[in-house]
Amino acid sequence: MQRVCFQLQVKPDRLDEYAERHRAVWPEMLQALKRSGWNNYSLFLRRDGLLIGYVEVESLEQAQAAMDAEPVNARWQEQMGEFFVDLEGARPDTGFVELQEVFHLEDQLDAVEPSTTHTPQN
Asked: Inter-axis angle of helices 27-35 and 71-80, to 10 degrees?
C-alpha cells in the first residue's frame, strides 16, 4: 500500500465555501473514489488555505487513472478548480505537490526485533 500526502493552496477568500462543499461530497463522487482505490482519504485545511491531503492507494498513478475514467470526476474537478491557486492549468487531482514521507512509525517498529517492540520500557 502506498501512502500519499499532498498539498494544495486554497484561496483565502474561499475557505468557508471549500469546507462546506466537503461536508456533503456528492455520493457519486464518494463511490467513484472508493471504486478507484482511494482508501483512508482525508483532507486537512489550515486557516491560511494550506490544504494537506492523505490517501492510501495501491498505486497513485493507477488510482488517478481510474478516477480519470469516472465521468463524475471531471465535473467535480471543474467545480473545485476555482478554489485553488497555483494550479497552472492543471486539475486539483493532478496539480498537487506530493510530499515525501520521511517517517512512518509502523515501518520502523517492524524493522525492530519483535522482542523489543512488545517489551514495556522501565
From this structure: 120
- Cβ-proximal residues to 10 (8 Å cutoff; 6+ apart), any chain: 18, 45, 49, 50, 51, 83, 84, 85
pTM for the predicted model, two decimal places: 0.86
Q: pLDDT per residue over 3-56, tens digit each?
A: 999 999 999 999 999 999 999 999 999 999 999 999 999 999 999 999 999 999
Cell 514521507 sits on residue? 101
Angle at 12 between CA 6 and CA 16, to 5 degrees: 90
Residue 118 annotated to the active site:
no
How far apart are alpha carbons 105 and 60 in whole angstroms? 21
Residue 15 half-sphere exposure, CB side, CA atoms within 13 Å?
11
Residue tagged active-site, from 22, 35, 75, 104: 22
